[in-house]
Amino acid sequence: MKKISSKAFAFGSPNNLVSDKDAQIFFKKIIENEHYVHSCLDYGGMLQKISEIVNLEDLKINLISKIYLNFPNYLSKRRNTLLNQIIQIQNLFPKENLELVPQISSIWSLPNYGYKKFILRLYKDLSVKRILIEVFPENERNSIMFAKNILDAISELNLETKISVGLTTYENKEISGVTTNIKSFINENSLEFAPMRILGNLKSKNDLKLAINSFSSLVRYKYFFCGITKVSSEAHYEQLLDLFNKQDFSQKNDIFSSNLILNNKLNRIPAKNPYGIYQSKNKNLLIIIKTSIKYLFLNPSLKTIILIIKKRFMKGF
């Protein structure tokens, strides 16, 4: 029976990580066990606390971090260029201790140019070897087009070592973010795949077994990257790994399918896009106007006006 390495999982931090010492000790174990960690600059100080844990003992960390493309709320921390967000994340850790995988999210408005320049910056200046692109049924057209532009840029640059590209979406025993178009795009380009929320809702031990069986079918895909999830305690963490390591992964599949083995017996619903409200340009413009007016009303100053104007142009790569 072939076991999969610890990098089969990426773990989000416990909700109480910032304030709870026991949670910090537990999450340190996850980092030391070389799992990927999943986080974001705008998760209530979670990533900053993770950097403290890592830097205190000079640990190495494998990190998947969300970054946001043209986030429509001008006043959000997420409104920044992709490169600026990556640099902010990298500045939290010693360069030699960090393996960073940017996860590009909230893809509703595409850059018209700059793809090759972006890839060159990742490759030459930022030492990024892999990127994930988040996709959902509601925004599959833009996300697939963005991924295609990224792949074309990598191909045209003919880099000595290619940057790996993968897709990520919600995928578990209850919901699926993989449409026919997304599945075809993955197979046509031999893309990596990193399912999120892999456990779904757990109400019993049997639910966990069902989730692991469902997830294991994805692990058998030849270009599977890792499964993104969260556990609330060390006991749950050990139980998850124990069940997972009992699976047989000796048989690999060259063709990606989200309906392998157990999944085709499940009555699943399409995954909802968490940024769905931003997919409509008219809705987005209304949100921007309302948010800006509200912020101006609460902070009527020249500084506020300058901030809004500055954030307006902090977009794209």
CATH topology term: TIM Barrel
Number of strands: 10
CATH class: Alpha Beta
Q: What share of residues are in beta strands? A: 5-15%
CATH architectural arrangement: Alpha-Beta Barrel
Task: Tell me the overall shape.
Answer: globular
Q: What structural class is derived from the secondary structure elements?
A: alpha/beta
Main β-sheet, spatial strand arrangement: 8-6-5-4-3-2-1-9
Helix content: 25-40%
Mean pLDDT: 85
Q: What is the CA-CA span between the terminal residues? A: 44 Å
Series of H and E elements: EHEHEHEHEHEEHEHEHEHH
Radius of gyration, whole Å: 20 Å
How many H/I helical runs? 10
The main sheet comes to:
8 strands, parallel
Task: Name the poorly predicted regions.
Answer: 260-265
Question: How many domain units?
Answer: 1
CATH H-level superfamily title? NADP-dependent oxidoreductase domain
Task: Describe this structure as you would to a colleague.
The chain is an alpha/beta fold and 317 residues long. The protein has a single domain, classed as TIM Barrel. Helices cover 40% and strands 14% of the residues. The protein is built from 10 helices and 10 strands. It has helices at 21-32, 46-56, 82-90, 115-125, 140-157, 180-189, 205-219, 234-244, 281-298, 302-312, and strands at 9-12, 36-40, 61-68, 98-105, 130-134, 164-168, 175-176, 192-193, 227-230, 269-270. An 8-stranded parallel beta sheet has the order 8-6-5-4-3-2-1-9. A two-stranded parallel ribbon has the order 7-10. Helix 4 links the parallel strand 4 (98-105) and strand 5 (130-134). Helix 4 (115-125) packs across helix 5 (140-157). The longest helix has 18 residues, at 140-157. The radius of gyration is 20 Å and the shape is globular. The model is unreliable at 260-265 (pLDDT under 50).
